[in-house]
Specification:
Layout (H helix, E strand, L loop, with lengths): L1 E4 L6 H11 L14 E4 L4 E6 L6 H6 L2 H5 L4 E6 L13 E7 L5 E6 L1 H5 L3
């Protein structure tokens, strides 16, 4: 599970497109703002979730979010994850995108599994 954070236009969907490319997804990856969940097949199944229109963890559960985060054959990317943070599993990795004054982006990664990789 990777929770994507960042404001409008920060690059969350662009991050998801690059992540999907790395998984070998050949379908066009688009923002799931209105569909809430898009699924793509690659080396792993990618569940691309946009929580922007969800009002909280209960809404996340109502769209099957609980089943998606435990899919052993897949990985979840959740845009606007702060709206459903209470529903995210404990080992969630967080990717925060921040737009700089010059228009460039800074990506910060954190999470138990990621930090375990560091020397």
């Amino acid at each position: 599970m990777i929770a994507l954070r960042g404001g409008l236009g920060a690059g969350k969907t662009t991050f998801a497109k690059g992540f999907a490319l790395g998984l070998g997804v050949t379908d066009e990856v688009t923002s799931p703002t209105y569909t809430i969940v898009s699924e793509y097949e690659g080396r792993l199944r990618l569940h691309h979730i946009d929580a922007y229109r969800l009002s909280g963890p209960e809404d996340f559960e109502s769209v099957g979010g609980g089943d998606l985060v435990v899919d052993g054959g897949g990985v979840c990317l959740v845009e606007w994850s702060e709206r459903i943070e209470e529903a995210l599993p404990p080992r969630t990795a967080f990717a925060e995108l921040e737009v700089q004054p010059d228009g460039s982006r800074v990506l910060r990664l954190e999470g138990v599994d990621l930090e375990a990789l560091l020397p």
